[in-house]
């Protein structure tokens, strides 16, 4: 179990194509902050999205940020972030997208 948790924290994913092992670095992305209307479930004025090239890496990165798995949104495969959490994600290596969410 410990080895499995360590594997999820690696900055790359691996796969196999034919007889070749391949390794690639999965990218973690945040989009630009957007003004939003606070409500009972989301009491903040600004938000953005966290997404990645692979769900495995997205969930591992979200765990490092302290996000709960239940906050993952299946539709468009993302987590919502506050402004402070976005800054933390960037500090941990997430890349800012130049354009809107889901248009990479």
Write the layout of secondary structure elements.
Layout (H helix, E strand, L loop, with lengths): L1 H7 L4 E5 L2 E5 L3 E3 L3 E2 L10 E7 L2 H11 L13 E3 L1 H9 L3 E2 L8
Parallel strand pairs: 3-7
Antiparallel strand pairs: 1-2, 3-5, 4-5, 5-6
Descriptors for this entry?
26% strand, 26% helix, 104 residues, alpha+beta, five-stranded mixed β-sheet, disordered N terminus, two-stranded antiparallel sheet
**Main beta sheet: strand number and arrangement?**
5 strands, mixed
Give me the strand/helix succession.
HEEEEEHEHE
Please give the number of β-strands.
7
Beta content: 25-35%
Mean pLDDT: 78
Computed Rg: 15 Å
Helical percent range? 25-40%
Distance between the termini: 34 Å
């Amino acid at each position: 179990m410990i080895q499995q948790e360590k594997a999820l924290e690696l900055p790359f994913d691996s796969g196999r194509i034919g007889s070749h092992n391949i390794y690639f670095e999965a990218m973690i992305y945040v989009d630009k902050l957007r003004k939003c209307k606070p409500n009972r479930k989301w009491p903040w004025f600004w938000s953005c999205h966290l997404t990645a090239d692979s769900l495995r890496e997205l969930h591992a990165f979200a765990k490092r940020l302290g996000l709960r798995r239940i906050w993952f949104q299946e539709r468009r495969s993302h987590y919502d972030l506050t402004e402070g959490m976005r800054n933390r994600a960037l500090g941990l290596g997430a890349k800012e997208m130049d354009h809107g969410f889901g248009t990479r």
